[in-house]
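Why this split exists: single-chain examples teach little about how molecules sit against one another. For that reason, every record in the complexes split bundles all components of an assembly together and asks for one structure covering all of them. Below is a record exactly as it appears in the raw files.
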Amino acid sequence: MKRRVLLACVSLLSGLASAPLLAAPSVGQTAPDFSLSDTQGKTVRLSDYRGSHVVLEWVNPGCPYVRKHYNSANMQGTQKEATAQGVVWLAINSTENASGDYLAPEQMDRWMQTQKASATRTLMDEDGTVGKAYGARTTPHMYIVDPKGRLIYAGGIDSVPSSRIDDIKTAVNYVKQGVREALAGQPLAAATTRPYGCSIKYKS
Amino acid sequence: MIRPSPTLRLFAALALFACGLFPLMACAQLGSSPSAVVTTEQVRAELLAHAPDGAGPGRTVWVGLQIRHKPEWHTYWKNAGDSGLPTQLQWTLPAGVSAGEIQWPLPEKIRIGTLANYGYEGTVLLPVQLTIGPEFKPGLLSDSIDVQLDAAWLVCKTECIPEEGRFALKIPARSSTAGHGAAFDAAWRSAPTDLATGGGTLKVDGQTLALSVPGLPTAWQGRKLSFFPETPEVIETAADWQQAWEGANWTARIPLSSQRSSSPTVMPVVLALDGLVGQRITLPVSGSWPQGSAAAPESTALRDALGARPGTGADAFGAPAASIGFWAALLGALIGGLILNLMPCVLPVLAIKVLGFARHAEDRRAHRINGLAYTAGVLLSFMALGLLMLSLRSAGESLGWGFQLQNPAVVAILALLFTLIGLNLAGVFHFSQMVPSSLAGFQPRHPVVDAFFTGVLAVAIASPCTAPFMGASLGLAVALPPQQALAVFAMLGLGLALPYLAASFIPAVARALPRPGQWMDTLKKFMAFPMFATVAWLVWVLGQQSGIDGAGALLVLLVAVAFVAWALALAGRARLVAGGVSLALLLSLGWSLGPAVTTPAPMTQRTGDGLWQAWAPGKVEQILATGQPVFVDFTAAWCVTCQYNKQTTLSDPMVLADITERKVALLRADWTRRDPAITAALQQLGRNGVPVYVLYQAGRTPLVMSEILSVKDVRAALARL
């Protein structure tokens, strides 16, 4: 009986989180807190990192746009630059487990390792609740949360929406730029930009 | 053995000319080389070309990427929506050739889970117009345009695959490429057209966009519409939104994206019914964008809107508002041409030609040859005039039928010509006296040539008139491929030539005429007066263009020409002296006064007269927004039909009373001089010449009325308001 009530509560909550896309926070609003398992099975909360800047990266290794930024080491470079300055980096995979792109936690963990990624944690969000709560649409889709838990950036990894690695050279990396500005205590020059990539394979 | 008559030779030449203009469509189907196609697991992409008139300088050439998707796969529109990327085309073209923007066909909203995209499934063709400038020189060996395309598209089902392809195609410069006409036709038909009436508002209301759009097609009222914003990253693409009809006004409330990265000042949007037909409207944004998002750099939307389709030249594919079929245009042109015969300046010339039958009533063969030569003269000059207009238009000039009279020099030359004809009819001189004696016997001995030039003359003097049925035909003609457009012009010529041609073939006409006698000379002299009346009118037209000084200068020149004509008709020594003096006088006056005739007078601020206000771009929409209906008179001083309607129907007390009673705003668009804004407005109405009378009312399609405006029609239209 107790178990059933708990289940009902959980499904109600997840229903609330997934239903209205409009609930996605705007830049300046509080970033929704969440609790997810990482690829090693440990539970991670966003609020654990209150006091630090947090970058959220939506990731799906099956997506050519994600591969563009990993094969070119652009994403890893951005991760390294941010984490070296004390920024927390959470990579989140919201691909549903029925999708062909789905990777089980161990596989996802291995992929991140072979890519020499410098994410602090890689989180599994098969239900898509966190992705939907943030209004994440594409892989990659990037967010920055400030030490007070407010959303200060939502958008793309950079300014040239293409799948060509060559374009990275000429693009403005909005995340590097945003982290730099945030750490210097400046307002972000580009606080919302256009995310580009594959649509996230959410559970329907 | 019969020697070929001059007429036969003339027709042989005509046939050659026509063949040159109408190359066989079938002879130039373009073989698709393998490099024009790229096939992947998800799509088959092919670079297509459409150049029905070849691809020389000034021609309209279309190219496009056709993408056939495997089932369930799709590519994206210019605004891809929540994810995805628009297909990108990068052209490599020879010098002098440049590519325009993609004319995106209407997309569909494709839902993927909780996200939504705008894109295409099945088969789509993305057309792009090529502009071929005079710098383009096809090589001697390779007589074609080499088109190279690097295309990048993102094709998605739920998974996405970015794909690229390199395509190459040769478009023959001098022959027709039309094998994919149907595919291009379909793509143009499905491209949204710009909403003719304009107007409409878009207000940022908290986290919502509030739209209000008047002037949508009446057939749409009460129906559910689809909405596609061209600016990405503004609305919540997948969210539910509301729409409603308030009378003829369509309104909608659309939630803004909470992570909006674009804050445009204008938004081009597309509204569509059943995903079949789309209307594109550029709406200025009022209200302020909610805080939280930093102002994003200017989106392409503003640039698009500022360069908003000029509605001329390059936009020739934009379907005119009131278009008619090709065959209807041909029929309209024929009837219009027939009616041209009754116009005041043409009638005298024709009457005299027909009277010529009375002189040799029995020589039927001569009559027929005359009739044919006259017809050839009319047809060739109409087609030459049409060709000139079409080539000027494709070179980027915005002009329409009657354009020749927008030039003061042409008006002045016509006035001189009509004065000479008038003096000739009045008996002041004969043309044989005007020319050197070696040619003096030319005219009577070559009646065929004479008839041919009478045809040319008839076209010259008929050109200021637009007859009923002609307007719609010419409006369509300029949007047609050149061969078809020329066919419309030829049909117009045939209509003009037909009465005389018929008279020359039917012996009864010649027999019905009274016996030749003194009456013929009297009639001929009488006919000088309509000619002089035409001159008076032309002087008035010139006065509108070049001011009172220009008109005065022209009158002086006319006197000088009359002096020359009189002097050369003298005999012996007097002819030599007076002729020399008068010619010298004419030349020196022409030299000194010519510039005064052709220099346009400064544009006087036309405040309109009485009830009428001057038309200006956007004015109709402004007035409609206040709820008042608007009647627009597109007119020109050189347009006889316009002046007739202005003096009769539009001055009718009953009509004026109705107008006052129903509070209709009256606007007059004066096309006496060249005015690209008016040319564009005419094109939107599917017309290319004046007169055009339009009654606008908010929420209704504009009502375009007949060129011969009757009191009854206008009052009936007003009664329906």
